[in-house]
Amino acid sequence: MLFSVGVGTNAPLRYQPSGSGKEIVLSPLTHRGAGDYRRLIVLTAQGGPNMAPKLDKALMTDGATVVRGLFDDVVMAKLQELYGYCFEHPSPIAISRTSGEDRSYTDMLNSDPRVRELTEEALEGLPIGEMLAEVWGSEHVWYLTEEIFLKESKGNKNRGVFHQDSSLAPWEGEHWANFWISFDPVPKENALEILKGTHLGPQYDYVPYDPEDPSNQSKRGKPFWGDRNDPPWPAALDIEGDLAQDPNSWDVLTWGVEPGDVVVFHPHVIHGGAPTGPQYPRRRTLSLRFFGDKSYYKPIPPGGVGQTPKMHAERVRLHKERGIKRGPKMKAGDLWRGPQYLQLQ
Q: Residue 69: which H helix or E strand, with range?
């Protein structure tokens, strides 16, 4: 079981029995006076204060879980500095889109040396390696990369398409995890939506919204890879259509979060949603990715959504210029390893 004291004088005490997937919120702690406190207390059934937090086994069975109050203000400030630096110093594969009042921005795999420095400073002393090693049963844990997101909208239309990250990345295996970190409070109705247990299912091709009308979630485009994959993957399911017809057609996991909370999920799980709109016009999110012993290479065609050969050529050029160390070229089924990855455990 997990108790955590949230951030702020009037923050509630949250209680989550292990494996239950449910959270009980007790009355706010108001007896400490007006002073602001920033302290996390973690208790387990057999333990006491100051023990490392644990990841719920739901990460393995459901594909996702939430950890309340994992990061304090100091850590969040470091992570926000990392986010801001990435935003101000984009990689060659950054994607920015604007449509009317909607705006979206994503970037990842930034090889700027300062990004690595800021990442190491933010991760130093954190129990992430220990947490993942325990829930995975993995001897080792490595840090893979960052990804940043900015979404702005005033019309509740800027929903993320339901997808698997593994449809656009050469990853497979049990030991992968995304730490989804938001810098603003996110109400449940605007939170990331995760389809329970789909990380144990097949690999689907990525199907975007209709590029001519991306704000209309009832219109879908064509599978992204199609015949470029051999054999082709099945097209991603029309989750939006299913949920529009029957909201109970899928078991959707979603959590409203406060700064310091982290949603942890497997990149093969189907996820999407997280809209911005009138009551929640902006979302700033940093995703940190990690992997363990049972992580493998899966070949996919070159390229990505919105990316061009010129963008990738510039990324390769910068890697060489910056002396980024890389391991030997991987083949299908090889262990995912390389000297460029920060080992945490």
A: none
